[in-house]
Design a protein that fits this description.
Shape: globular
Radius of gyration: 21 Å
Strand order of the largest sheet: 6-7-8-9-10-11-12-13
Number of helices: 14
Structural class: alpha/beta
Largest sheet: 8 strands, parallel
Length: 438
């Protein structure tokens, strides 16, 4: 079974995506050159030719000029964005691992550290398996947290820096130095985080300043201090709930505003926003909006931030996969349209307008949260695009259908055929790049 770039009817670098349905419902031809969108030309209203699940809805139709791909009315989206993943934690690329039971955050961490010591498949191979799957499903950019702790030190970071370079023509990867075992409570981690930012990490993370470290000011002093020293962004895991969590959110917002880091700070999970209500939620949301602190949700199985209410108060919310088949949970497919579905179900997003909101969490809002430049479908934007077998954005979220074509920087990078995903992965298995296959 061949890859799209090996199929004669699909050029490696298309010049026109003809007869595309845009996110706003318009039908248009999308012109591409030099890795950019050069023009979006509206087409007369016409009946869509549904894209078929075997991919035959894309190709050169009769009389179609070379370099043109007729997508048959299929939906074209800007590349999907995964705002929060853990490439170093995944067990994809290794045989199935039974999920270890744990009741607390500390037990989760202990289980993970124990398994990490016995897993035979290296981090880079497992991360490569997951990154390949992300590309095939239309993800063009991902922010991955990578553990920095006294055991693994910078080994995981160095492995993911190599993966980032390997995928630079297919997938944009941001790396967050993540203190999974704490900051203040883990001797030497502050120095390791400092070194991580000097050796390839793009952002610095944090973990439950109150609930895990027991020292809110101590952890935030280190995190914000290192961010300032290195000119880096911040993305803090915050699982603490209730008013304990909301107080930390306001503390993060206060520091963000005081240091002029508007738009450079994110809080992942922020379960507290799903626990509190009334004045407590309102004043916390107001503080986050004023400081332009963004909130990431993956649609957890318990409290989730109220997406629509936060957006109404001016807080940017975006989405991520979080854990994908690792010791934290056995679930996860790397499909960001499926993730939008999960968040939509959890947040009771049902109308077409609300399904558009769900889609924005894995496209425009996530791209803005990650600071991606020239993102979208308009002249001058990067040609990072995904063609989806759907006729509208709401349908794409509700059904998370097949990806028909994936472009990164104007070049075809997917999707990969299902044959490239065996029932279980073995060490060294992976989807070859176009360059590797030629």
């Amino acid at each position: 079974m061949s890859h799209p770039a090996d199929t004669p009817s699909i050029p490696l670098a298309p010049e026109i995506l003809r007869n595309a349905t845009l996110p706003d419902g318009r039908r248009a031809d999308v012109h591409l050159a030099g890795g950019r969108v050069t023009a979006v030309v509206d087409r007369p209203a016409m009946v869509a030719r549904p894209a078929t699940v075997d991919g035959s809805g894309t190709g050169r139709g009769p009389g179609t000029a070379p370099g043109t791909v007729d997508v048959g009315g299929a939906l074209v989206l800007p590349a999907l964005v995964d705002g929060h993943a853990h490439l170093d934690k995944t067990l994809l690329g290794a045989p199935w691992q039974p999920h270890p039971a744990s009741a607390t955050l500390r037990e989760h961490i202990a289980n993970e550290r124990a398994l990490r010591a016995t897993t035979a498949v290296p981090v880079a191979e497992r991360a490569t398996a997951l990154a390949n799957r992300m590309v095939s499903l239309g993800t063009g950019h991902v922010r991955s947290h990578v553990d920095i702790d006294p055991d693994v030190r910078l080994d995981g970071l160095h492995a993911l820096v190599e993966v980032r370079e390997k995928f630079r023509d297919r997938l944009g990867i941001q790396l967050v130095a993540f203190p999974q075992s704490g900051v203040v409570s883990a001797p030497g981690v502050a120095d390791l985080l400092d070194a991580a930012l000097a050796e390839g990490a793009d952002l610095i993370g944090g973990l439950d300043p109150a609930g895990f470290d027991g020292d809110v000011d101590g952890q935030l002093d280190i995190v914000f201090g290192l961010a300032g020293r290195h000119g880096a962004g911040i993305d803090i895991h915050l699982h603490d709930g209730g008013e304990t969590g909301s107080a930390q959110l306001r503390a993060i917002a206060e520091r963000t505003a005081a240091l002029g880091l508007h738009g450079k700070v994110a809080v992942s999970h922020a379960f507290a926003l799903g626990d509190v209500d009334g004045p407590e939620l309102d004043r916390t949301a107001a503080a986050l909006a004023a400081a332009d602190v963004t909130i990431m949700t993956n649609g957890p199985r318990h409290s989730m931030p109220p997406v629509l209410r936060l957006r109404e108060t001016g807080v940017r919310v975006f989405a991520g996969s979080d854990n994908i088949r690792d010791t934290w949970w056995p679930y996860g497919t790397a499909d960001m349209l499926e993730r939008a579905t999960i968040i939509g179900l959890q947040g009771d997003l049902m109308t077409d307008e609300e399904l558009h909101v769900a889609a924005s969490l894995v496209t425009d809002e996530a791209a803005a949260a990650l600071g991606l430049a020239d993102y979208g479908i308009a002249p001058g934007c990067r040609a990072d695009l995904v063609v989806v077998a759907a006729g509208s954005v709401p349908e794409a979220v509700a059904a998370h259908p097949r990806r028909l074509l994936v472009l990164h920087d104007g070049r075809v990078v997917g999707p990969a055929p299902e044959a490239d995903y065996p029932a279980f992965a073995v060490p060294g298995d992976g989807i070859p790049t176009t360059e590797e296959k030629r």
